[in-house]
Every structure is written in C-alpha cells, then in structure tokens.
Amino acid sequence: xxxxxxxxxxxxxxxxxxxxxxxxxxxxxxxxxxxxxxxxxxxxxxxxxxxxxxxxxxxxxxxxxxxxxxxxxxxxxxxxxxxxxxxxxxxxxxxxxxxxxxxxxxxxxxxxxxxxxxxxxxxxxxxxxxxxxxxxxxxxxxxxxxxxxxxxxxxxxxxxxxxxxxxxxxxxxxxxxxxxxxxxxxxxxxxxxxxxxxxxxxxxxxxxxxxxxxxxxxxxxxxxxxxxxxxxxxxxxxxxxxxxxxxxxxxxxxxxxxxxxxxxxxxxxxxxxxxxxxxxxxxxxxxxxxxxxxxxxxxxxxxxxxxxxxxxxxxxxxxxxxxxxxxxxxxxxxxxxxxxxxxxxxxxxxxxxxxxxxxxxxxxxxxxxxxxxxxxxxxxxxxxxxxxxx
Length: 390
Description:
The chain is α/β, with parallel strands linked by helices.
C-alpha cells in the first residue's frame, strides 16, 4: 500500500507517506477505534496533488464517501454503526469567508466525530422527537490554505507542494490504477478484519500526549499490529509531523498578528489605497508592544515582510505617488481576502469585481487609476507621505 500511494502522489516527506499508509489501514478497523483522526490535505496553491491524494484514498479506504458540498443533514443520516470514510474536497469553499451557515454545522460535525459517543441531536420524524445522530467517522479533508484550527488540531496534516522538476509520478488511469488499488484494499480488509478485537484492546505507548496522542493512536495501533519496522516508523512520523505542526502554529500566530497590525496601520492612516513598503515597515517597528523590532537579527525589514505575507498571496508592487515618485508599495485591497479569512474579528469584505471596486491584482506592476481626490500615505503618528496623483 505504501508503494502504491508513493507511486501516484509525491508527499511532503517519508514520514507523511508512512502516515497516509497507516491512516488508510486504520479506516478498515474504525469500528474498533476510540478516535477517528482527520487527514488534512492542504496546500498554498492549486496544482499540488490534493485531489490526486483523494483519488487514491477513494480506492483504498473503507467505504469511501466522496463529497464537495454535501449538506450536513445528508452526512448525519449516512453515518451509522459502520460509518463510511468521508472524503471532502475543496474545503476552502466550505470554510471560506463567503461560506453558508452550514459550514459551522459541518465543522461541528467534524470536530465531534473525532471521538466516539459524541452524537448530534436533532428534532426528527413526524412526531418531532429529539434524535441522536452518530458523528463518529474517519474523514480526509482537502483544500487550499489551512482548515479551521479546531479541525487541524484533530488531524494528521499533509502540507502538499507542487512537484519539483524531475519528480515523477505514475499517471492515474482508472482502467489500470483502480483494480490495483482495490486489490490492495481488499487485502487490507482481509488482514485486519480478524484483528478488530485485538485492536480494540490495545493501549499503545505513545510519543506524544493529549489530543495529538488521541489523533495518532489509531495509526500506531496499525503499526504495532504490522510489526517489523512499522512501530518505530510510526512513532518517528508522529513526532516529526506533530513538531512540524507546532512550529507552523507558532508561525501562523505570528502571521495573523502581522495581518492585524497592518490592518491597524492602514486604519490609522485613513485607509489609503496603498502604503509604501518602507513606511509600512517603519510603522510596524514603531510599535513597542509588537515583536517586529526584534524580528530577525536586526528587526523587520522589507524582505522579511514579503516572506511573511507570501502565503497569503500578498506581494508589493510598483506604485506611483505624487510628484512622480515611484516606490514599492502594498495595496490595501490585496489584504482584504486574508483579513476576511484569518482575522474574523475584523469587519472586512474580500474584493469584488463590481463597479467601483479595485481589482485584486495590479496589472504588470502598475496600480489601477486613482479615484478623485488625494490619499495620505505614511506611517501612523507621522507626517503624511506624498499624495496620490490624479
């Protein structure tokens, strides 16, 4: 199974390949497990192989249920004593800033279903009786950008990237690939079926604690049942991947702080169309309570700022200010989507294509035409910078 998965997709690491293999196997004994770990398949952009991972999972996991925007009501009624394995694609459209109210219900379902005996109660039937609906089911969720924190906290996380030049995969063709993967699935089912009772009694030694241990325990149980090199490999993967996510959480918190601070700086400058990079950096460093003056070895600079904002698809562009002065600057409308997605406490809307709204991208490094009037550009608390030319 490990060889077959590695043949069709390039995963971030050998530890990630081992984790996916064990997760697939765990779906075949989920009725014996106390926790149903989520598999979060995320990437910074499209074209990183997320959907191909779901294609491979669809042919190898226990009773797959592939969905893009199935309603929570349907999922509630499908999960039972022998639940399917949920495969959710395009999760960024489900949990994005313009998602419907069902997204919160689905997030609650995914969170509750991580642990056995956490039913969702609904009024059901002609007599309107309170009815418990099971939520316990394994789930793989794929999308661009991180999933909600509460889902990521219950997941084995695969951070997919585009393939490097020279990294090759076998083309996934249904005629040949599906029979091969289905045969491996059937062999897993035959091997693990008689071991459900033993798996239910196992209390494996875990290298992590708390929720991370709950999430990784099913994978370690499979590894201990397999024996050989798997027990050590599973625990090594658990340590490496949970430590990586802890570092990602710390970095993510820093980036969220940066987005909030930039929002404040724009607001204090009366929300100009753009702020020069040097002015934005200066304003960030001036905040004595923020970490930016001590960021890196000599404090935050333009290079650091660009790196921190890259994951949000925000970059500086050439901008022409008053008196023909041109400088690198950050357009405010480029932040709207990131603010809406990552800083829900801020009242912002993503840029629209309606009349009067600025486009999200600056064509060929040049800004859109200026509105009537002038806009101040400069750090808060200081003199206004050059005014925007007509």
